[in-house]
Amino acid sequence: MIYTCIIIDDERHFTTLLEEYIAELPELELIKTFHDPTRAIAELTAEHFIADIIFLDIHMPHISGIELAPHLKKKCKFLVFITAHAQYAVNAFDLEADDFLYKPFKIERLQQSIKKITGHTTPAVQENTDNDFFFIKISGTQSKYLKFLYSEVIAFESDKNYIRIYTPNDCYRIYLGINEVEKKLAGRNDFIKVHRSFIISKAYIELVENNMVVMKNSNVQVVIGKQYKASFFAYLESHKF
Predict the structure, then answer these.
(1) Could you confirm whether domain 133-238 is CATH 3.30.110.30?
(2) Which among 194, 54, 63 is positioned nearest to 113, based on CA atoms?
(3) Which residues, renumbered to this chain, carry the PTM 4-aspartylphosphate (predicted)?
(4) Tell me: the pLDDT tens digits for 127-137?
């Protein structure tokens, strides 16, 4: 499972380090970093749900993490305070924080925290091979690329000149054709095309009923196209118990 994260901390040198830690942990996905708590509260408090985990610094200018926490606690699953001032720990837990990280901490301490608050073991940090992931360049930018793990992609859906990439926590609309995706996936056996507009991950298939495929961890349901029906059901038969 992937846990989305937001960092609110005015110390840029520390947020850079925490961003690097998060990038190395496959169960974490960083959505945004705020260095100004007033901007964070302006942008986030109107939202119904912000992220799975908020890493919130306590000692910040204008408004402290202690003051900010009540506005954010109900908008995330887990609230983790981070600070270099140990005397704030009591106040942090009075606010029912899920954990308290004392700066500076190593990535192993962050792993322990994620395991503690989610009840799941975070896989050890490891290098991905080139076959585990891919990058997609965001149109209209010169240097912004999104990284995707193949193991996290539920489906690719054609949307005119775009594709939608479904993951357990989000859906991304990218300027790219489905035929280009199909070419890039050539030679892989973890995806299968079931409709002219859909390429799905075999690992996320939850249920096949009549001509409908229901995918796990999403709202994706795909009607099997006529020209793909024979090959898809042949795949199912080859894996029937």
Answers:
(1) no
(2) 54
(3) 57
(4) 555 678 888 88
